[in-house]
Write a structure and sequence with these properties.
Layout lengths: L1 E3 L11 E4 L2 E4 L4 H13 L3 E3 L7 H4 L4 H15 L29 H8 L11 H20 L4 E4 L21 H10 L5 E5 L6 H7 L5 E8 L24 E6 L5 H18 L3 E6 L16 H12 L5 E5 L5 H16 L1
Parallel strand pairs: 1-4, 1-5, 5-10, 6-7, 6-9, 7-8, 9-10
Antiparallel strand pairs: 2-3
Helix pairs in contact: 1-10, 3-4, 5-6, 8-9, 9-10
The structure holds zinc ion.
Zinc ion binds next to loops.
């Protein structure tokens, strides 16, 4: 299987984020992708660099304001008196309030609060370039499958599934899997996304919530007391033309392989019923029992079984890397998943 990887991700190395009221080291580090590509090479997969797909695929998913902000934010931030090294929001519009007349601000501090949901995705000098490369990795993997490959894997970093049309967050700047899915829709009439990262793919859900041509299924830890808190509940089934094309399968905190795999089997059944022409997998390894962010106890064997369950669909499949923050075991868990997936 071809594995798409760009060293440009090295330009994005966020330093910190706030966790439970304390500054903590940001776990979305370059070593994640370095370890994943090493494991892919060790398993004998061909590693290739992505083509540049240009601006249009990003513009098909994200708002012009979001893209202009991400591209210019660090330069503008650096021009502020006393600015820190990374763009971080510290005030936000309360957009859910009915009648709130929130107006779009001109300054970069206000725009950071508008366009970034939390402190987990600091924007540094090379973050935009890395985010664009990550989207190109996803697009190239998708193009390989459109061109006839049964499967391809994109080592996307930064990850993407928490990024909405006009809002970044949760280590994610651009929504790679959504950009790839939209690209595939140019040739295919309907595609499905199954997200097995431990966090709900709230950005992906948001982007496709009103559409019936892209099925979104997410298996994740119950958001009642876990990120992203405000989405990921079973009652969220889509709206308008998307009614029924969104399926959330939350797993209770503390559960392990059995509950995780049962939810994936339900998700696989939903994908089968939708009859997509291609499948995209938001592939996170942060459900792992040793992951610093994990409230679940999934084992490497669990990821192997997850790969096998998804492979049973027999669909042309694009694997898109999302989370997974235990660098020591990311390679092992990727190898396990691919062994299950490729048989
Ligand atoms: Zn995650």
């Amino acid at each position: 299987m071809d594995v798409v990887y760009s060293e440009t991700h090295l330009l994005h190395a966020p330093r910190r984020f706030i966790s439970r009221g304390e500054w903590a080291d940001n776990p979305e580090v370059p070593a994640r992708a370095i370890n994943l590509v090493a494991a892919a090479r060790a398993a004998g997969h061909r590693v290739i660099a992505p083509d540049d797909f240009g601006d249009a695929p990003r513009q098909a998913v994200h708002s012009p304001e979001q893209l202009a902000f991400l591209e210019s934010a660090h330069r503008r931030w650096s021009e502020l008196d006393g600015a820190g090294a990374e763009v971080l929001p510290n005030t936000h519009p309360i957009r859910h309030l009915a009648g709130d007349p929130a107006s779009y601000p001109e300054g970069v501090v206000g725009q950071a609060g508008w366009h970034v949901a939390d402190t987990a995705c600091p924007i540094g000098a090379g973050s935009w370039e890395a985010a664009c490369a990550s989207a190109n990795v996803a697009l190239h993997a998708a193009q390989l499958v459109l061109d006839g490959a049964p499967a391809a894997y994109g080592i996307c970093r930064p990850p993407g599934h928490h990024a909405f049309n006009d809002l970044s967050g949760g280590f994610c700047l651009l929504n790679n899997v959504a950009i790839a899915a939209q690209h595939m829709r140019g040739k295919l009439s309907q595609v499905a996304i199954i997200d097995i990262d431990v966090h709900h793919g709230n950005g992906t859900q948001g982007i496709f919530y009103g559409r019936g041509d892209v099925l979104f299924v997410s298996v994740h830890a119950d958001p009642t007391a876990f990120y992203p808190f405000f989405a990921g509940y079973a009652a969220e089934r889509g709206e308008a033309a998307g009614e029924g094309a969104n399926l959330n399968l939350p797993v209770a905190l503390g559960e392990g392989d059995h509950a995780y795999l049962a939810a994936i089997e339900r998700g696989v059944a939903a994908v089968r019923g939708f009859q997509p022409e291609a499948l995209l997998v938001s592939l996170g390894f942060d459900a792992y029992e040793g992951d610093p962010l994990s409230p679940l106890n999934v084992t490497s064997g669990g990821f192997e079984a997850a790969g096998a369950a998804i492979a049973k669909l027999g669909a042309p499949t694009v694997l898109i890397q999302e989370g997974g923050y235990d660098c020591r075991t990311l390679g092992r868990n990727l190898t396990a998943f691919l062994e299950g997936f490729l048989g």
